[in-house]
Amino acid sequence: MGIAASKLAAIAVILSVGAALAGPGGAGHGHGDETAYGKAGDPKKPARIVQVVMSERDGKMAFIPDRLEIRRGEQIRFQLRNNGELDHELVLATLEENLKHAVEMQKNPDMEHDDPNAKRLAPKKTGEIVWAFTKAGEFDFSCLIPGHREAGMTGKIIVK
Fold it and tell me: Which of 131, 32, 145 lies closest to 98, judged by CA?
């Protein structure tokens, strides 16, 4: 193998490792990319506001509300507030994707998300996710920080 070919091989390895570490869905979750559960919303367009509070009490962790009904085609502006004493995150995906990603989070609990479908918040902080639900179905939102989903920090979105 020549020098040029070995450099190309090294670049290919670096790119594949970077994609594997990129978070839920890897490199394919850019703005405008459609997923099974919709696509990143356009903050400049109208959206229904849904407030979601993250908290922990009496050994349980929760999203309030933990069940949402949304019309297909609707854009939602999730206004997130962490009322707890610990970091929490909201990751919107299919249940299968979130369960798979939770395993990755067990290996790398400090993984930061820079995806349009996820937001991590420190205690007493706020944030938002703007998401367009383009497909009908049942979807999941969970806190994937190790132990949080298992302590009850999960919810369901039903898109009709």
Answer: 145
Residue 107 near residue 146 (C-beta atoms within 8 A): no
| DSSP β-ladder status, 88-93 and 137-142 | antiparallel
Contacts of 129 (CB under 8 A, 6+ apart): 77, 78, 80, 90, 92, 116, 117, 118, 119
Q: Which two tokens stand for residue 4?
A: 């040029």
In DSSP terms, 56 is beta-bridged to: 61
Q: How far apart are CA 53 and CA 78, in angstroms?
A: 10
- Section 60-78 average pLDDT: 97
> Which pTM value belongs to this model?
0.79
**Tokens 């939102």 belong to residue:** 141
CA distances from 45 to 4, 52, 126 (A): 47, 20, 21
Does the pLDDT value for residue 17 go beyond 50? no
The two structure tokens encoding residue 1: 């193998």
Question: What confidence category does residue 32 fall into, taking pLDDT thresholds of 50, 70 and 90?
Answer: low
> Contact 97/7 with Cβ under 8 angstroms?
no
Q: Are 141 and 91 spatial neighbours (Cβ–Cβ below 8 Å)?
A: yes
